[in-house]
Amino acid sequence: MDEAKLYKKIKNAVGRGVADHGLIAEGDRIAVAVSGGKDSYTMLHLLEALRQRAPIRFEIMALTIDSGYPGFRTDIIAGHLKEHGFAHHVEKTDHYGIIQAKRREGSSYCSICARLKRGALYELAQKFGCNKLALGHHLDDFAETLLLNQFFVGSLKSMAASMLADNGITTVIRPLVYVTEAQIIEFARLKGFPVVCCRCPACGEADMQRKRMKRLISELERDIPHIRQSILRALSNVQPRHLLDRQLFLKTVSPDDAAPDESA
Ligand SMILES: Nc1ncnc2c1ncn2[C@@H]1O[C@H](COP(=O)(O)OP(=O)(O)OP(=O)(O)O)[C@@H](O)[C@H]1O
């Protein structure tokens, strides 16, 4: 697909995601979390394109967490963002040191690293007066997370497109909810984004279980071409009465809920 066509497709998908889930409102100040990976570069550029043509006013700035792994080229990220005129802050942290001290032998870096990063991003968003924090999760992440939770956790959940964070202040948004990873890979290649990796031992590698979900979906895709879109549609077409969560069931059929809405 040529670049203009792909760009239009992604732009429309971001626009739909933002509209469907009410991700952006007048006066928002959005901290865009940019890791130096293909997803967050794509998100940042698409949000800026949206900002320029949107009928409402909102601001964006980019935030990067340097977790302290030797060799992470945040200067390359900063150079690219400066060249494109983005406000950008790099926060240098000692997460690497904390992880080395706290990590149990043989356990993964990723979960503790992600938690530390998320905490730092919430703090920074507040510090820079941003009410929203945009993360670069895409359609494939939503589908894989749903399967991961079903297969390994025993829970029917994925990710929210918009959710108030635990700090009760920052709203986390995921504007790439309708954009596939394949579209992002192609877009990042055509745009020549200077992708860098954080240099942690797991850098650039999805964890093993996530890789299995990716593989499974790709294998099934040969017979079911729209499998990704279908999984995503399932997330917005929940039929609680056909599930087994007793709390959900009781809530769904409680007399209060069933009563006609007097306020209508
Ligand atoms: N070091 C970081 N600094 C700022 N934001 C980050 C950083 N690491 C991750 N994020 C944010 O969290 C999102 C999900 O992180 P994850 O580690 O799963 O990356 P990813 O799926 O490889 O995405 P990307 O291609 O943007 O790196 C990223 O898209 C980005 O928005």
UniProtKB/TrEMBL annotation:
GO terms for biological process, alphabetical: tRNA processing
GO MF entry, a single one: 4 iron, 4 sulfur cluster binding
Keyword Iron-sulfur set for record: yes
Annotated tRNA(Ile)-lysidine/2-thiocytidine synthase N-terminal domain residues: 30-193
EC nos: 2.8.1.-
Binding positions for ATP per the UniProt entry: A33, V34, S35, D39, I65, G136, D141
Enzyme class: transferase
UniProt keywords, alphabetically: 4Fe-4S, ATP-binding, Cytoplasm, Iron, Iron-sulfur, Magnesium, Metal-binding, Nucleotide-binding, RNA-binding, Transferase, tRNA processing, tRNA-binding
Gene3D superfamilies: HUPs
PANTHER family in the cross-refs: AMINOTRAN_5 DOMAIN-CONTAINING PROTEIN, SULFURTRANSFERASE-RELATED
NCBIfam families: PRK10696.1
Protein's name in the database: tRNA 2-thiocytidine(32) synthetase TtcA
Lineage: Bacteria, Pseudomonadati, Thermodesulfobacteriota, Desulfuromonadia, Geobacterales
